[in-house]
Amino acid sequence: MFDVGIGEAAVLVVLAVIIFGPDQLPKVAAQAGRALRQLRTMANSAKEDLREGLGPEFADFDIADLNPRRFVTKHLLDDMNDFDARESAEEEPFLPYGERPPFDPEAT
């Protein structure tokens, strides 16, 4: 999720110890954990409120579909997979294996 390596995590731990001190670090970590849990609960509650507000016609709506990468994957690349399935179902491909495609010198 955050793409943090071992070295970066070690630097963060050392900085946390320096900033908060070894005595305060467990308290700060516990507060951060509580805040993250509370934030996750609020986000889940907002998702459920949104689903209830949209009604039954959007029952299969997923909030993650609003992510641009997932949107492209779902709507464009899934169509490509369908095209590949149709193409493999045909008896012969567009060009036989090893044959060069036609070349138009005026098109370049």
Into which percentage range does the β-strand content fall? Answer: under 5%
Order of helices and strands: HH
What is the gyration radius calculated from CA atoms?
26 Å
* Low-confidence parts: none
- Helical residue percent? 55-70%
Count the strands? 0
Determine the structural class based on helices, strands and strand pairing: mainly alpha
**Average pLDDT for all residues:** 80
Shape: flat
Largest sheet: none
Distance separating the two termini = 44 Å
Count of DSSP H/I helices: 2
Summarize this structure briefly.
It contains 2 helices and no strands. It has helices at 6-54, 68-89. The longest helix has 49 residues, at 6-54.
Protein architecture, described:
There is one protein chain. The chain is an all-alpha fold. It has helices at 6-54, 68-89. The longest helix is centred in the N-terminal third of the chain and has 49 residues, at 6-54. The radius of gyration is 26 Å and the shape is flat. The mean pLDDT is 80.
